[in-house]
Design goal:
Chain lengths: 82, 412
């Protein structure tokens, strides 16, 4: 069952909070993973793998570098679920 | 210019007895044991021959932030807890980051992380092996975690010499302060490897006590019925600095670390030299460095793990060094209470030695019901006053690989 943008955002925010301690309400669509949220590449890969499990999608390693913002990741997951 | 005077200004520990250094000391004086039956399902699942251990009493989950728990192997978690306590106890010294050094030690490193990753790989495939795996396995991870947490930029060094590791880290810290590489050093060691694999492995080599029906009485150094050591875990940290630096900032001083000796047996990978020659040399070096004669030593915190051959080899070394004066030395084997913290054990016993001098009280050895007639020592079995005047003590650690490390402390 495909989730809405809001539902994916909320789920992703939980994963980010779990990995980094960043407050869930700081995780917004326009935020950059690196510049705004200060998430390093190791945490990013952990979040990606956990997101694959949580949302039952595949996010290839080559794709991860294109996911600059939270919105990029949410869009990718929403499309991959469809 | 002669050697600098190096002093201990902070202590911290999380141990099978308690979650802090002072609480561990009080539990030690009270004669408690940290050994308990393990409650993990893997103990029965694999029918392990040893079903108890001395696990840290306060779990890191009760102390650290969630993100720290996720990104640090338990061996680093214990390191961070102990180092933060020692740092706070030292009054969080103001020191240039470039003059603050970490000298840490572990016996094995991130064994939990390695074995968990292997389970994950087999169950769920390579994609699920977490990217933090490598930095969590590294034996230098605890030193790096402390360096990052406390802002130490003079270096974050790690020594690995099995059960001698964290006494050797104190020897290194002493040397590094003498060399002028730093003004303040956070030194110590940590270990967390009470895992089915390590319990099975130590048990296979007949190193562990199998007194499953009475864990609290299993670690019994010098007793005729000793049958091996009790695995422990935890971390212990000391803040060391030059006396000049400590006095300039008005720090409280527990004791002086006056010298250290490190040698190797070149004899056997696990068995100690039966005459304890390497241990004897390490003690001589430590005493010489400290400007102490054997007759100056009033207290020994022995390595004494409660194994048949180890306790005797150490006794022979002590007799060789101290001769008849050994009869006047208050010897204690605190592993009887704490179990064996492996890479963390030397630093913990150094803390107990420092507190013994500071409080002028030797802590007891428990479970000595039938002293081994081959070991003629004055073993402390209840807290014993060490008297007035200048006091000096040594703490011994020996490790698989033939490693011997001895540190000498004095009252200030």
């Amino acid at each position: 069952m495909a989730l809405s943008t809001e539902e994916v955002l909320a789920g992703l925010a939980e994963l980010i909070n779990d990995e980094t301690g960043i407050a869930t309400d700081s995780v917004q669509l326009d935020k950059s993973f690196t510049d705004d949220l200060d998430i390093d590449s190791i945490s990013m890969m952990t979040i990606v793998v956990n997101a694959e499990d949580k949302f039952d999608v595949k996010i290839p390693d080559d794709e991860v570098k294109n996911l600059k913002t939270v919105g990029d990741a949410v869009d990718y997951i929403v499309k991959a679920q469809a | 210019m002669g050697p600098k005077k190096i002093v201990v200004t902070g202590i911290g520990a999380t141990t099978p007895l308690a979650g802090t250094a002072q609480d561990s000391w009080q539990a030690l004086l009270a004669g408690r044991s940290g050994a308990r039956t393990m409650q993990h399902e893997w103990v029965t699942m694999y029918e392990l021959p040893v079903t108890f251990a001395a696990e840290a009493l306060v779990r890191p989950e009760e102390v650290l932030e969630r993100v720290e728990l996720k990104r640090l192997d338990p061996s680093s978690q214990f390191a961070l807890i102990a180092a933060r306590e020692a740092w706070a106890d030292a009054g969080a010294p103001e020191v240039e980051p470039e003059r603050l050094l970490v000298d840490w030690a572990t016996g094995i490193g991130g064994v939990w992380t390695l074995l968990d990753a292997w389970d994950t790989l087999r169950d769920r495939g390579p994609r699920r092996v977490m990217p933090m795996t490598v930095p969590m396995i590294m034996p230098n991870s605890p030193a790096a975690a402390i360096s990052m947490a406390l802002g130490a930029r003079a270096g974050a060094r790690t020594v690995v010499s099995a059960c001698a590791s964290s006494t050797e880290s104190l020897a290194n810290a002493y040397d590094h302060l003498q060399q002028g590489l730093a003004d303040v050093v956070i030194a110590g060691g940590s270990e967390s490897c009470i895992h089915a694999v390590t319990v099975a492995a130590f048990s296979s080599m007949q190193a562990l006590s199998k007194r499953n029906d009475d864990p609290a009485r299993a670690s019994r150094p010098y007793d005729t019925d000793r049958d091996g050591f009790v695995m422990g875990e935890g971390g212990a940290a000391l803040v060391l600095e030059t006396e000049e630096h400590a006095k300039a900032r008005g720090a409280k001083i527990y004791a002086e670390i006056a010298g250290a000796g490190v040698t190797s047996d070149s004899y056997h990978i696990t068995a100690p030299d039966p005459e304890g020659l390497g241990a004897t040399r390490a003690t001589r070096i430590a005493l010489e460095q400290a400007g102490l004669a054997p007759g100056d030593i009033r207290h020994v915190n022995a390595h004494a793990t409660s194994t048949g051959v180890g306790d005797i080899a150490e006794y022979k070394a002590l007799r060789a060094i101290f001769g008849d004066h050994l009869d006047d030395i208050a010897v204690t084997a605190t592993k009887s209470s704490t179990g064996h913290l492996l890479g963390g054990t030397g630093a913990l016993e150094a803390i107990f030695t420092v507190l013994a001098l500071h409080e002028r009280t030797a802590p007891p050895t428990i479970n000595l019901d039938n002293p081994d007639p081959e070991i003629d020592l004055d073993v402390v079995t209840s807290p014993r006053p060490l008297g007035d005047g200048d006091l000096a003590a040594v703490s011994n650690s020996f490790g698989f690989g033939g490693h011997n490390a001895v540190v000498a402390f004095k009252t200030v």
